[in-house]
Write a structure and sequence with these properties.
Low-confidence stretches: none
Largest sheet: 2 strands, parallel
Mean pLDDT: 77
Distance between the termini: 31 Å
Strand content: under 5%
Number of strands: 2
Structural class: mainly alpha
Shape: flat
Radius of gyration: 26 Å
Strand order of the largest sheet: 1-2
């Protein structure tokens, strides 16, 4: 698989290799071989936008026609329209892959939309009793092979989103076994490394899916919600220090989001009711806030960019808690705005100074 780089990077690389070729350090054949191992990463073009929008409109139109005439069509007529439509658009996409690659993708996207809608419509048509969450799972799994065949990260991203909808069903009584996602999520991480050229977008989406799945598992098994922030705090801190060079920035930001939200929740005294007596609630929340602030300052000294936002959030949380009932509302908002502006100025100054990651 060719390595994708920006157009400016390819131009720089070509200039450098040409220079070494003129110096006699590289042969013409070596320069050609190296350049052929790279591919310019194409940005989303106006043509692609038109084709994707057109695909969405066609898919919507086809489904609207079927829905509008639903009561007049026999079951097998409905089934054949959906089946033939999906296969037809897939075949059309396959036939135009070489000659019109952008148009080909739009045809595939129409097929994907018909496939997904067909799952729901066929379930309704044959009065299948399966809960709708399983339809999202079937749609996600069904389009994943196409995403692999095309190496299309947008179809893969749709699959991850649909798995997220399925994971949301873990909070309902209809899904009794969440183990399917225990296998699918690691598979998505592996496929991103092997087939999607280590896409940062897909890595971030799969990581968010993993976190959402963990939260839904807590709900599914009826675990006390007061335990969730403690677990997520530890998980977020672990992500912050996880050393994966290509995804370090993504893990740092998502980890900061996770332990930041969890940390703010744990400043609320009621979350400590499992561990201490009721009269000690307020002191425990304040003690935790002091310890957590120290940890965030440590991250800031390490050059962590999200740490500034966490400090700002923590200070603003206590400002709002202590001031809202005592200050005139106009003064409350003015002072709050000034605090945010000061932090924004500090944030920009530190970033320009190059001292933060």
């Amino acid at each position: 698989m060719k390595r994708k780089i920006k157009k400016s990077q390819f131009a720089f690389l070509k200039d450098e290799l040409t220079h070494f070729e003129k110096q006699g350090e590289l042969s013409t054949e070596q320069v050609k071989t190296i350049l052929e191992s790279y591919e310019i990463n194409q940005r989303i073009s106006f043509i692609r936008i038109l084709l994707v929008v057109g695909a969405a409109l066609i898919g919507t139109g086809v489904l609207s026609f079927i829905a509008g005439n639903w009561s007049y069509l026999s079951k097998w007529t409905k089934f054949m329209i959906l089946f033939v439509g999906m296969i037809g658009f897939y075949l059309a996409g396959w036939k135009t892959e070489v000659s019109y690659p952008k148009t080909s993708r739009s045809l595939y996207y129409i097929g994907v939309s018909i496939f997904g809608a067909g799952i729901f419509l066929i379930g309704q048509m044959f009065n299948l009793s399966a809960e709708s969450y399983f339809a999202f799972l079937a749609w996600a799994v069904g389009i994943l092979p196409l995403a692999l065949y095309l190496s299309d990260k947008w179809i893969a991203l749709l699959s991850i989103f649909l798995l997220g909808v399925y994971a949301d069903g873990l909070a309902s009584p209809y899904i009794s076994d969440p183990l399917i996602l225990v296998f699918l999520i690691p598979l998505l991480f592996w496929l991103n490394e092997r087939r999607f050229d280590k896409s940062r977008l897909l890595f971030a989406a799969t990581t968010l899916l993993s976190l959402f799945f963990v939260l839904m598992v807590f709900t599914h098994f009826g675990i006390d919600e007061r335990l969730v922030p403690f677990f997520m705090l530890a998980l977020g801190i672990a992500m912050t220090f996880l050393s994966i060079d290509r995804y370090k920035g993504i893990l740092e930001w998502i980890g900061a989001l996770v332990h930041g939200v969890s940390g703010l929740l744990l400043t609320i005294p009621e979350y400590w009711s499992l561990w201490i007596k009721e009269e000690d609630f307020p002191y425990m929340g304040i003690l935790f806030a002091i310890v957590y602030m120290g940890f965030v300052i440590y991250l800031l000294n390490r050059g962590s960019l999200p740490a500034i936002l966490l400090i700002c959030s923590l200070i603003f949380r206590y400002y709002a808690d202590l001031s809202y009932d005592f200050l005139p509302k106009s003064l409350f908002f003015v002072i709050g705005g000034l605090i945010l502006i000061v932090f924004g100025y500090w944030f920009e100054k530190r970033r320009k100074g190059g001292r933060l990651a």
